[in-house]
Write a structure and sequence with these properties.
The chain is α/β, with parallel strands linked by helices. It is built from seven helices and 15 strands. The radius of gyration is 21 Å and the shape is elongated.
Length: 240
């Protein structure tokens, strides 16, 4: 369930930015129980330099460099997974939007019905993303980690360490028991200190689960048979 949605509006026309912000807050008050935060930026450079990750970014295209399309490309290059919605008078750029995996393309002036349809789709997409992701608190901020990116989780002291497929490790304060309740059936507790993503398991040998990248995690002796059974069930379910 999504409890907080962050929006960014990037438009060099203050009046348009205020209008869009008003439409967003009105829609969220009427259609969603999630809290929302709306941040406005007068250009692509300001958005890029903010360093903030947003759930949804509304981008004008015709702005000073970097324009909206270039800003979108730069966001994608640094791994930003925001839902990008272009809001523009430029009909001819619609095909360029596919190159940056834009979520939607709205024309100015905003059509109320079209805007609400887009927002309906945005909420559904974010709910689906939340169901397949782990939202963790780190310091004063939050981070969304797709479950498919997590190879295994281990607990050391009071911290959980999430080992990702790209080699990165994310740590935060939590208990393994609480984490186990928040992930789905692809995760198996192979040891009192480890949860492993069955999608990355390639075998079990000498009391260890062998993972796709060559890493190994311990498997309790009493859990080896259950790991094999769970892995077979996972593969069968995935193949359906």
């Amino acid at each position: 369930m999504v409890t907080m949605i962050t929006f960014a509006i990037c438009d060099d026309e203050p009046r348009t930015a205020r209008e869009l912000a008003g439409c967003l807050t009105d829609y969220m008050e009427e259609h969603s129980t999630a809290a929302c935060a709306v941040s406005s930026f007068s250009g692509g450079r300001a958005l890029l330099e903010s360093g903030s990750g947003f759930d949804v970014v509304f981008l004008d295209i015709r702005m000073e460099q970097p324009d909206g399309m270039e800003t979108a490309r730069l966001l994608r290059q640094r791994g930003d997974s925001s839902l990008l919605v272009f809001v523009t008078v430029l009909k001819e750029c619609v095909f360029d939007a596919f190159q940056v995996e834009a979520f939607d393309y709205l024309l100015k002036p905003l059509d109320g019905v079209r805007f609400r349809q887009t927002m309906d789709r945005i909420l559904r997409a974010l709910e689906q993303r939340a169901a397949e992701s782990l939202v963790i608190r780190r310091g004063t901020g939050w981070e969304v980690v797709p479950l498919s990116d997590i190879v295994y989780c281990e607990v050391l002291g009071r911290k959980i360490y999430l080992h990702k497929s790209d080699g990165a490790v994310i740590d935060y304060y939590d208990r393994l028991e609480d984490l186990e309740r928040r992930v789905d059936g692809r995760f198996f507790k192979c040891h009192r200190s480890y949860l492993v993503n069955l999608g990355w398991v390639r075998g079990c040998q000498d009391g260890q689960a062998v993972l796709a990248q060559g890493a190994r995690v311990p498997v309790s002796r009493l859990r080896e048979r259950e790991l094999t059974r769970s892995l077979l069930c996972y593969m069968k379910e995935k193949g359906r």
